[in-house]
From TrEMBL:
Enzyme Commission number: 3.5.1.98
Protein name: histone deacetylase
Subcellular location: Nucleus
Superkingdom of the organism of origin: Eukaryota
Signal peptide (from-to): none
Record's GO cellular component terms: histone deacetylase complex
Region Disordered: start-end pairs: 27-47
Primary subcellular site in the record, as a coarse category: nucleus
Residue ranges occupied by any Histone deacetylase domain in the UniProt entry: 45-361
Length: 384
């Protein structure tokens, strides 16, 4: 029987079907979003982040050279030219005027970066440079392309990882998300919420049930804000098709200051699960918290697609946060997700370069892909 969200798009064969199991998407134009010189220090959100990740993954999963086909299909394939997102895909989860301001205020070619601060004033982490609108549309376009690929009915690429920037999970409906706190929120390097664009796209185009898992060290306040807005306007007679689970550091003064659990009496509690973690949370404590507070809900929700807000600043070596996760934790949580639902689209959020050539960011991404390939620990240790 048709529903208001009945599938409108024919699931077609992806051109990359039958080649591999994990698709890594990126676009060189995302490097043209340069932010501002003041944010391009060792902890900044800068083009070198995604460049380093892609260089590292290319070494781990080299493309075959020459004319001969490799004897076995590669486990990982790369798509570096996904199309731009359509504006209508952004408008499902963002105010039309807000998106218009991004486009209007992006400096013309050769212009200088400028601060972009929609709504309330905040810490200056959001700057528009001449390539910003292009980067933003390419980042969101990578996510919708990834969803098209993994939901293609005969594709054996069930999993994708979008190595894109700028990140998105701090961006709400109109940029800033005050939520239930009175602190003056900035956007934390985010302009468009890539994961929520993907979630709305998947529901609208494929009639899916989407679970979003966010393991960035910071609370996905923008994602929660958009979830709340969608929940508040959703017809009660139609099951709400989204679940959001966030693990994040929650300690005094730590950005963004939101992310406390919703009590069971809250209208949000069935669809927004916040798992705040104390400073210094260890690998074992992180896994225990997820097992006790999230995995049953995730299984019960029975998603037909899992989106991951993959923030690797929760690694112990990343100096932005104070959690003590290790490479293997990103492999573990990816495997757990894969065994609940094999169709996964993961999207890069935070995670920053250190001083070493093999930083925790690139190692964590490699561990994440291993987990998405369902490699590593035996099933008895996965914690199902
Ligand atoms: Zn973060």
């Amino acid at each position: 029987m048709a529903t208001p969200h009945s599938a409108k798009r024919q699931r077609t064969t992806s051109p990359l079907a039958h080649q591999s199991r994990v698709l890594v998407l990126s676009h060189p134009n995302t490097h043209h979003h340069t932010g501002h010189t003041s944010s391009r220090d060792s902890s900044g959100e800068k083009p070198e982040r995604t460049m380093a990740i892609l260089t590292y993954l290319a070494k781990l999963y080299p493309v075959s050279h020459g004319l001969l086909q490799p004897p076995t299909p590669p486990q990982v394939v790369f798509d570096s030219n996904p199309p731009r997102a359509q504006l209508r895909d952004l408008w499902r989860v963002h105010d039309v005027e807000y998106i218009g301001r991004i486009i209007d205020q992006t400096p013309k070619c050769g212009g200088r970066s400028r601060h972009f601060s929609p709504g309330r004033a905040g810490v200056k982490t959001t700057f528009l440079s001449p390539g910003s609108t292009e980067a933003i549309l390419r980042a969101a376009g990578a996510v919708t392309t990834a969803i098209d690929t993994v939901l293609a009915s005969d594709s054996n690429i069930t999993t994708a990882f979008c190595v894109v920037r700028p990140p998105g999970h701090h961006c709400g409906w109109s940029g800033v998300e005050p939520l239930d706190t009175d602190i003056d929120l900035a956007q934390g390097f985010c302009y468009v919420n890539n994961v929520m664009v993907g979630a709305a796209y998947a529901v609208h185009e494929y009639d899916t049930r989407v679970a979003i898992l966010d393991f960035d060290v910071h609370h996905g306040n923008g994602t929660e804000g958009i979830m709340r807005r969608l929940l508040s306007t959703h017809p009660p007679e139609i099951p709400f098709p989204l679940l959001f689970i966030s693990t994040h550091q929650y300690s005094p003064g730590f950005y963004p200051g939101t992310g406390s659990p919703h009590p069971s009496s809250s209208p949000y509690s069935r669809h927004i699960i916040n798992i705040p973690l104390a400073r210094g949370t260890s690998s074992a404590e992180f896994r225990k918290a997820l097992k006790e507070q999230a995995l049953t809900a995730l299984r019960d929700f029975a998603p037909t697609l899992i989106l991951i807000s993959a923030g690797f600043d929760s690694h112990a070596e990343d100096h932005v946060g104070d959690l003590d996760l290790v490479d293997e934790d990103f492999q573990w949580i990816s495997m757990v997700c894969k065994r609940i639902q094999k169709k996964i689209v993961s999207v890069l959020e935070g995670g920053y370069l250190g001083d070493t050539s093999e930083s925790c960011l690139v190692r964590s991404c490699a561990a994440h892909i291993k987990g998405l390939l369902d490699e590593g620990e035996d099933s008895s240790k996965v914690g199902s």
